[in-house]
Amino acid sequence: MRKRNQEIKGVSGTSRMSYRKATETGQIARETDYVYSLLKEIARPMNSREIAERSGIERGNITRTLYDLENENKVKVSHTGKCHITKRTVKFYVCND
Fold first, then answer.
1. Which of 50, 56, 63, 95 has the fewest CB atoms inside 10 Å of its own CB, making it the most exposed?
2. What CA–CA distance (Å, rounded) separates 18 from 12?
3. Is the pTM of this model over 0.70?
């Protein structure tokens, strides 16, 4: 019988392991709570890069967190516009209350 880590190979397997660990340790819940609190406190639309810079959380995690919060109807896309950092068109998020 193989060890659990040996069964999962490749990048997608590593990603699944990482996600599982983050879920089990409560990291995802803490990040979700923090991002939601930050958006409530700031009370202005923010994009994922701004949230990442302000929070210190990796932008990839912010993207996942915003997706989850949007599915829970806690945040919504306020508008799309140019990011002041990258000059690309991005989504800006606000709390849904």
1. 56
2. 10
3. yes
Looking at residue 26, what DSSP letter applies? T
Q: For residue 52, what are the contacts with CB-CB under 8 A and spacing of at least 6?
A: 58, 59, 62
Task: Record the tokens describing residue 72, joined without a space.
Answer: 């829970």
Element (H, E) at 27: helix 27-42
Write phi, then psi, for 92 (nearest 5 degrees).
-115, 135
Q: Count CA atoms within 13 Å of residue 51 on its CB side.
A: 31
4: how many CB neighbours lie within 10 A of its CB? 9
Q: What is the pLDDT along the chain (97 residues), one digit of tens a residue?
A: 445 545 556 767 888 888 888 888 889 999 999 999 999 999 899 999 999 999 999 999 999 999 999 999 999 999 999 998 889 999 999 998 7
